[in-house]
Amino acid sequence: MECRDNQTMTAVTEVMRHQLQPYLFQDRDVVRAHVHSFGCQLNVSDGERIRGMLIELGYTMTDSYEDADLILFNTCAVRESAEDRVYGILGNVKKYKKANPNLILVLCGCMASEEHTAEFVRTHYPFVDIVFGTASLSRFPQLLLEHFQGKKFACDTGEYDAMYEGIMPSREHPFKASVPIMFGCNNFCTYCIVPYVRGRERSRDPEQIFNEVKQLVADGYKEIMLLGQNVNSYGKDLEQPLTFAQLLRKVNAIPGEFVVRFMSSHPKDATPELLDTILECPKIGHHLHLPVQSGSDDVLRRMNRRYTVEKYMESVNYLRQRDPDFSLTTDLIVGFPDESEADFQGTLDLIRSVQYDNIYTFIYSKRRGTKAAEMEDHTTDAEKKNRMERLLALQRDIASEHNKRFIGRTLRVLVDGESKRKGRLVGKDSAFIIVEFSGDLSLIGTFQNVRITEARNWAVLGELVEEEQA
Length: 470
What we know:
Layout (H helix, E strand, L loop, with lengths): L13 H11 L6 E7 L3 H17 L1 E3 L8 E6 L4 H20 L4 E6 L7 H8 L5 E3 L7 H9 L5 E3 L19 E5 L1 E2 L10 H5 L3 E2 L2 H13 L4 E5 L16 H9 L6 E5 L8 H9 L6 E3 L7 H7 L5 H14 L4 E8 L6 H14 L3 E6 L17 H22 L7 E9 L5 E6 L4 E5 L8 E9 L4 E5 L6
Parallel strand pairs: 1-2, 1-3, 3-4, 4-5, 5-6, 7-10, 10-11, 12-13, 13-14, 17-19
Antiparallel strand pairs: 8-9, 15-16, 15-18, 16-17, 18-19
Helix pairs in contact: 1-5, 8-9, 9-11, 12-13
């Protein structure tokens, strides 16, 4: 369907705020909004900026559908099951619209960026008022105004021609923050929809990034997560190119006590310069999430990953030669179309070689709009499930043994919160290792030294070193 062309992205302006106020508060003192973000951390980050815009406009946030004057779903499109879930939720919230005809329903995010979504929603969910894609985030206030002025279906799924700046996020976490450094992806892996819904790679201005990180550190944030679909490609499109490794060194030089993490990295762009930077910079978490997806060169070729197992292992070996204990995690897809038993054995062999601290695994599911969805697949669901169980069993054994290397060491841990076990806390060290120990709730959000006494397959356990508290 035809939607409004994307315009220059701007933050909430005083003029826009002034125009919306009469509509928002014409018959009430308080207006409430509920924002639900699905999917990846970039989506969550976008959701924080949407919350920030709504608060600037005068909304109060609520966790309840019943109390809300506006309900916004910031959607994910990575899997079709994620879309089905959103449509199911939309069907359920229809009753709130019936009870309160003035309730505003908004659908945005990656799913809303797909070409067919806007027309499908308008036809099958006509009670939805506003739809906008990831490129149109900063135009949300304008779309809201159009709704109040009588437009039945306000929509913007425009192109990616600008970068949003000046939108102050409403952070959901008190001491951990995400900072997007780039948007989009140029890789076109055959199983992935992201390039089609987030567009080509676009890097933020480094000064904007530095200023945001400096402010977060000044505000007391202890963990900064730099985000991008492929952070290793950062800066290639800037007028004055800056590599991701150079950006990391500049962030590392910002004064303060904090740890810097980032995701996601593409193995084909994991340069020695980047690996050296991680090893040499004390504020950069000494951990790398390096998604391999498969241990078979044939599967990697059909995935369009543009590296081989041998090339991947060069990065692993480079890190482990410099630091034998360096922490590595990965993503793996089990059951990619026509994955053979030999292909799968290659994945098991890779896991044994790398000795990952943790893996994030997924059974392949078709994603409409991707090339892999058109590939023939003769591997049964039962075979895929069996392979997943074997893979997880292997990783549990590896992690149990691999985590023993920390016994007797003292780790500097950022305390995240309470453990599921009463009276105990949980956090992560620089290498992203989960650490559980006994301690007071007042330690949450601080760095503490913990001596490790026991290893499990999911974490290490330890004791607070009172005399050496950070």
